[in-house]
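Input (Nucleotidyltransferase domain-containing protein):
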Amino acid sequence: MTALKTILYFSIFNYPVTRDEIFKFSTSENIDILDNELEILLKRKIIYQIGDYYLNTQSLDSVKRRLTNNKMAEKIMPKALRISKRIASFPYVKGVALSGGLSKGCFDSEGDVDFFIITSPNKLWLARTLLILYKKIFLLNSKKYFCVNYFIGSNNLNITEKNKFTAMELVTLIPTYGQSIFKEFMSNNKWVKGYFPNKNIEENFSLVSDTKKPIISKLIEFILNNKFGDFLDTQFRIMTLNVWNKKFKHLHNVDFNIAMKSTKNVSKHHPNNFQKKVIEALNENYNHVKQKHEIILEPEHA
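Output:
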């Protein structure tokens, strides 16, 4: 029931999906097998079809909401690309990608524009601090269009949390700057194919381009490419981690180490631990299907 799993995953976000999207984000061996499964699910009224969209409820509002949010995503995309270019111009930034809802073609009035950033080795916290200072000073700390919440160093391209949620986030990333580093990144995370063998990751690279660093960025890199720069990077990490430990002390250690991961070459700022919440919600959907329709779906792990 791979099609059902895909529909249930997107239902967490109240997002009806098309036949092509279901196939793309499923493990179905071919489209004929998928069509057969969809037909069975529809006959048993486990799922419903409204126009081109499949969902687990008979909600026309969900379809209307998706269409509205798709249009909003198209409208906001040019601005997101301009911000991507700005982020790419900062010192030690080697690659920028759109992530979150916008990378899936969805944006609403309460959403943020999320960015996934790859930095130079051992300079992640320098790059991050400069970007956060820019946000606080020039954007008045607004994260609406400037949510830089996930950084990794280019010498640490393998994502260790391997589950359906992280796989989905990786295969839907839209690189905007740093084509070569993102191709290397995806090469280091081939495990996502186990979750989404039908997703052609290359199609995500249509918006990727390169940008030249301004003189000020080159100058900063020149000044800090030494032991003093390494010292600053370490200090910025320690300072940030101390602030987070105090601010998010309600998080258990296990949750903190995942949601607020702060190593030398990884920085995550996900205080709501969305990964855990999505996996838990998905398993709840699986249990509901089991109880109501006697269909057993293998649970996901976080």
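Residues 2-58+283-293 form a domain with the Arc Repressor Mutant, subunit A fold (CATH 1.10.10).
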